[in-house]
Amino acid sequence: MTNSKYPTPETRYLKPNSSFKTIFDQYDWDQTLSEILSKTEEDVTRALNNSKRDLEDFKALISPAAKPYLEQMAQMSSHITKKRFGNTIQMYTPMYLSNECQNICTYCGFSMTNKIPRRTLTDEEIIQEVEFLKSKGYDHILLVTGEANKTVGVDYINTAIKLIQSKFANITIEVQPLDQSDYELLIGNGLYAVLVYQETYHKSAYKKHHPKGRKSNFEYRLETPDRLGRSGIHKIGLGALFGLEDWRADSFFTALHLQYLQKTYWKTKYSISFPRLRPHSGGLEPKVEMTDADLVQLICAFRLLDEDVELSMSTRESEVFRENIVNLGVTSISAESKTNPGGYVVEPQSLEQFEISDERRTEEVVEMLKSKGLEVVWKDWANNWK
Known about the structure:
By secondary structure, the chain is of the alpha/beta class.
């Protein structure tokens, strides 16, 4: 079926040599933030009344001027989500394979400077963790590692994917950015999606928070979704870590990135995640607070901008917040997550990347979702397209 939103050339993408950096370099952070903060109630009402919204509307919907309209935004977001996705919500789970890392990141418990025991799962330990997760019903899995190329590089990730690909409908990874040829190799062995968060689109702040390691290369990370799009990946996940810089500006650049990718790699699916800075070993305090009301506003704004994009909510958030947001725009949710390698079975007491807020068992979260009138989806389709 043809996607009517975008052009339909025979090729998978529109510009084989394109890069988001070309678009990104045309924008100034301070000017963008100023434009968002200067939006008026008239701009907000215009955005709400538009049947098709653009990035200027998005600026209005994430602006302080939109706060009095939050209830209306929430109702509209809920209606659009139900129309597009029905009363369903996708369940997924993360599985941390390693906490070894060669980067210094000010906000992460796995940062190279943190004196913690390092752990990388063996094949046998991976299978033990997988058996536990399968017993809970999960069919969508997210594999996570630190960024240590020699220890958990492409070969290790490839082996892990091949080891478990027959057990899951979809395998997603959140690992170090890779070259296009590496992604093509992993896709050939069963990789479905990749999450790659820019953390912050504020270039100088990015350097401050990533002073050493491969992750310090802002441009290489910025262009990772382009390499993914050219590799033919089925889904790309974007996001920023809220608390490092102003959440409104980071969210605008995330939306700008999303729309560029949708128009360039138009057969690829996309998701947005909303991680807020959580306590960890190392203890960076958020520079800018993002309140619960701010996060609700942002989730609704993304849904009003794009009715097709998948919106994901992790266990970083509290039980109460997650219960209130699942009917307002979110389409996928995790449960009973462990952010330490071997955290489910092998080594439950090893150091977590960050603290979990919603610690309920999978069964409890499922019952909560059902009580909200939602149908829990474990497997929406099998990854047999490769």
